[in-house]
Design a protein that fits this description.
Layout lengths: L8 H13 L6 H4 L7 E10 L5 E12 L5 E8 L4 H17 L6 E7 L7 H15 L8 E5 L5 H15 L23 H17 L7 E5 L3 H12 L3 E7 L2 E4 L6 H11 L9 E3 L1 H5 L5 E4 L18 E3 L8 H10 L2 E3 L1 H4 L2 H15 L5 H26 L3 H19 L2
Parallel strand pairs: 3-4, 3-5, 6-7, 6-10, 10-11, 11-12
Antiparallel strand pairs: 1-2, 2-4, 7-8, 8-9
Helix pairs in contact: 1-3, 1-14, 3-14, 4-5, 6-7, 6-12, 6-13, 12-13, 13-14
The chain binds nicotinamide-adenine-dinucleotide.
The site of nicotinamide-adenine-dinucleotide has 25 residues, from α7 and β7.
Length: 415
């Protein structure tokens, strides 16, 4: 995770909300309700390990706001997950679903665990145990979890199965990001990167940037980063650098993404691919590229390195990769930041499509999912760019202003 833990993510998220409240008219009585999650569940999940010993894992589910619809947000498995992180991510989810104009609220879950140290059966027990701890507080129409860092369709399928066993009836809509064979949506696996890619193309056009030879560097080569690299390469952009937790690689003429993925599959890392130079994660962030795409974890661009960032634009595929202090420095430098609540909202958008398909029990073709995703992402990007120009603020502030206004209006209308 973040090797540079300088900031408390919830303090960052709260600071952003405070800034927004100075930009738009929000009833202070509504604002005060947006300062903390509506509900936070803390659990201790016991797991009988393969050795016979019992280990207990701490976990959370934060239900931030449900004014626009049921809570929605992923479940993260990571050894540095904290209550503050889960709360921050649940606040950002609330803004994200609102920016995309989805009928959903915001939530997030996390288990403090290094899943790489668990066998498959231990992982399954942990996933099922987590569901046993939260099942009374979630459900289709209440709170619908999804995958996030280190969780995948298989884990979602275990959790759905456990929920159905506990409640005694089929409930495919209790969780999204399920395998396609188990009532998942086509395209969910690539949705975050694909959505971010649509947003980047829209921004390139709006900013009048030269597409030919446009250079991209990507930090993080997981679900989001690897797919984004492939899409960018297929569209003819030059992906000059990528990295994972072990380090990065660089080639100024552009990397062969198929070869990078094969190398990562074989060796466990992108590092060491023939024909590439090694770069550290720090150096990758400081490359003079057109688009820098953080796709790892939060706080990667902070007060310590913001002044050294040379990219023209940053597309936040990760959640919270730029701290507020870095934001201020980058804005002064003229770096365009495409905020996470817009850039990585493709995942939750296709999760919403999955909920719709589960409700109707009718499943869409991939082309249909992608066409609907493009329409949603294009519309939201246009709205945010318009608000940016009208309010003369950053894209992040424009996106937050749109989102907070939508959520606050929904809350006020219920009072
Ligand atoms: P993932 O676990 O599949 O991949 C994370 C990648 O980051 C891995 O390649 C890992 O090696 C790398 N990494 C970890 N620490 C690093 C470091 N210090 N420097 C460089 N690389 C590092 O996770 P993911 O699903 O791709 O998610 C990545 C980010 O995107 C997260 O912030 C997540 O919240 C966000 N996101 C993901 C989705 C989704 O649908 N997958 C949706 C919205 C947002």
């Amino acid at each position: 995770m973040n090797t540079n833990k300088m900031d408390d993510p919830f303090a960052n998220a709260s600071k952003q909300l405070e800034e927004i409240s100075g930009l738009i008219e929000v009833d202070p009585n509504v604002l005060v309700k947006l300062q903390e999650p509506e509900k936070v569940i803390t659990l201790r999940v016991p797991v009988e390990m393969d050795s016979g010993e019992t280990k207990v894992f701490t976990a959370w589910r934060s239900q931030f706001n449900s004014a626009l619809g049921p809570y929605k947000g992923g479940i993260r498995f990571h050894e540095q997950v904290s209550l503050e992180e889960v709360k921050a991510l649940s606040m950002w989810m609330t803004w994200k679903t609102a920016v995309l104009d989805l009928p959903l609220g915001g939530g997030k879950g996390g288990i403090k665990v290094n899943p790489k140290k668990l066998s498959e059966s231990e992982l399954e027990k942990l996933a099922r145990g987590y569901m046993r701890g939260i099942y009374r507080d979630i459900g289709p129409g209440v709170d619908i979890p999804a995958p996030d860092v280190n969780t995948d369709p298989k884990i979602m399928a275990w959790m759905k199965d456990e929920y159905e066993k506990l409640t005694g009836s089929p409930a495919p809509g209790v969780i999204t990001g399920k395998p396609v064979a188990d009532k998942g949506s086509k395209g969910r696996d690539i949705a975050t990167a694909q959505g971010g890619f649509y947003v980047m193309e829209k921004v390139i056009a709006a900013q009048g940037m030269e597409k030919d030879g446009l250079q991209i560097a990507i930090q993080g080569y997981g679900n989001a980063g690897e797919t984004f690299a492939r899409l960018a390469k297929e569209a003819g952009y030059k992906v000059v650098a990528v990295s994972d937790s072990k380090g990065g690689i660089y080639n100024e003429s552009g990397l062969d993404i198929t070869a990078v993925s094969e190398h990562k599959k074989k060796t466990g890392s992108v590092v060491g691919l023939d024909g590439t130079e090694s770069v550290s994660n720090e150096d990758l962030l400081e490359l003079a590229v057109d688009f820098l795409v953080p796709a790892a974890l939060e706080d990667q661009i902070n007060e310590g390195n913001a002044k050294k960032i040379k990219a023209c634009a940053i597309l936040e595929l990760a959640n919270g990769p730029v701290t507020p202090a870095a934001d201020a420095i980058l804005e002064k430098q003229g770096t365009l930041i495409v905020p996470d609540v817009l850039a990585n909202a493709g995942g939750v958008t296709v999760s919403y499509f999955e909920m719709v398909q589960n409700k109707d029990d009718k499943y869409w073709k991939l082309a249909g999912v992608l066409a609907k995703l493009k329409e949603k992402m294009d519309k939201a990007t246009t709205k945010v760019l318009q608000a940016k120009d009208e309010m003369k603020v950053s894209m992040r502030m424009a996106a937050y202003a749109l989102a907070v206004k939508r959520v606050a209006d929904a809350m006020e209308s219920k009072e």
